[in-house]
Design goal:
Mean pLDDT: 87
Structural class: alpha/beta
Radius of gyration: 26 Å
Number of helices: 12
Low-confidence stretches: 1-27, 375-379
Order of helices and strands: HEHEHEHEEEHEEHEEEHEHEHEHEEHHE
Largest sheet: 5 strands, mixed
Helix content: 25-40%
Strand content: 15-25%
Oligomer: single chain
Shape: globular
């Protein structure tokens, strides 16, 4: 190939810039840049959207860009309809209002949206084209299993939460609402549906949706609201599918830690379901008003031996109740005191007021000591947080130290 005589006179810096911009070899990547003017319209009209929240100065963001673009090419080939799958990005330096709206605390963050609604579980898998493409394929699988006979209802896995719908026809507004809810809560419940003649005996008063809780003895619960009202249907299903007391595992620990609110944890042996049921009952009875200010969790003693060691406990001591504030861990004095009215609630209130921390450093508050009794100063600090170590890794993200950095 004959070179143009003008090339020797071109500053190579400009050639580099052209290559970086991609002007030398246009690619197929269709990454939509989002801003305040288009974000709602684009996300609301897409079945599934994967949004990359990034900062240009972040090296992890720079590493992800070509992977994200190639994954979008794979998705576009498999789902050519732009309304099915959208790959998009937000420059958080340029659009800090959007970053704050979606509570971005690290770069890059990959958030999944369905019809404009942000899913609570972001993408935390491998940063590879194959893994991201596989993730999108999983999100496009219909979460609703179609029942061919009512006998199948008797064989559903009762170790899982099940939501079952009975519809006159599949092509209906009622079923579309059900399917939309199922897509959002696919990680929290199993969804099934029966149609037409198969569902006749269950539709004595029209289309019907029931919830089957975990366990064989707990009765079914029927949805009594309008199936054409998405907000009501979703709120009902979410209440049933997302338990008040969730299990923490190594798989979801990062996600739970990133919510940024303290943990109230029951450590129990896996086979000890009685302690868990008592804990769930007391949390619902004493602490329902604290939902949102503290996460109610339970953990397998054997799997989480290390946090137990931090509070000088072993699986032999279980069940044990503790709070992890992400600075320190505090132990509930005696598990047997769980049922004392108000005892567990006061433990949580003492965290919020700072009393737990104060007493570890300075001994009991004056109001908690006998008049005239000398207050003993505590000799040691409370154990350091264990679950903070499950937070997002700094070898994979640029962590924002101050949320105001946005």
């Amino acid at each position: 190939m004959k070179l143009s005589p003008i090339l020797p006179f071109i500053d190579t810096r400009y050639v580099t810039i052209l290559l970086v911009m991609g002007l030398s070899s246009p690619g197929k990547a269709e990454i939509t840049s989002l801003d305040s003017g288009n974000i709602d319209d684009i996300l609301n009209n897409a079945g599934v959207s994967l949004v990359n929240f990034y900062a240009d100065w972040c090296r992890f963001s720079q590493m992800l860009h070509p992977i994200f673009e190639e994954a979008s090419n794979v998705a576009r080939e498999e789902y050519p309809d732009a309304s099915q799958v959208v790959f998009a990005r937000v420059d958080c330096d340029q659009h800090s209002d959007i970053a704050q709206r979606y509570r971005i605390s690290k770069y890059p963050t990959l958030k999944l949206f369905r019809n404009g609604m942000m899913m609570k579980r972001e993408y935390r898998g491998q940063r590879s084209v194959t893994a991201i493409a596989d993730f999108i394929r999983q999100q496009k699988v219909d979460p609703v299993k179609e029942l061919q006979s009512l006998e199948e209802v008797n064989t559903v896995d009762r170790s899982k939460r099940n939501v079952i719908g009975y519809f006159e026809q599949k092509d209906s507004d009622n079923y579309r609402t059900f399917q939309k809810v199922a897509n959002i809560l696919r990680d929290d419940c199993s969804f099934s549906a029966a149609f037409g003649e198969v569902s006749d005996t269950e539709r004595f008063s029209g289309d019907n949706v029931i919830y089957k809780p975990v366990g064989e003895t707990i009765p079914d619960m029927v949805y009594l609201g309008s199936l054409t009202n998405f907000d009501l249907t979703y709120a009902w299903a979410q209440d049933k599918c997302v338990p008040l007391v969730r299990e923490i595992t190594f798989e979801n620990g990062e996600e739970l830690t990133e919510e940024g609110i303290p943990f109230l944890i029951l450590f129990h042996l896996k086979e000890d379901t009685t302690s868990l049921e008592k804990f769930q009952h007391e949390v619902a009875r004493q602490l329902i008003s604290e939902k949102g200010s503290i996460n109610f969790l339970h953990a397998d003693c054997d799997k989480f031996r290390h946090p137990l060691l931090h509070i000088q406990k072993t699986p032999a001591d279980c069940p044990v109740i503790a709070i992890d504030s992400f600075r320190h861990m505090y132990v509930f004095p005696e598990y047997k005191d769980l049922a004392i009215p108000g005892k567990l609630r006061q433990f949580v209130l003492d965290l919020h007021s700072g009393k737990l921390h104060r007493e570890f450093h300075h001994g009991p508050d004056p109001t908690d000591s006998t008049p005239g009794e000398e207050i003993q100063v505590a000799a040691s600090d409370p154990p350091e947080s264990s679950f903070q170590k499950l937070a997002p890794s700094e070898s994979r993200y640029t962590i924002l130290r101050d949320r105001d950095e946005l």
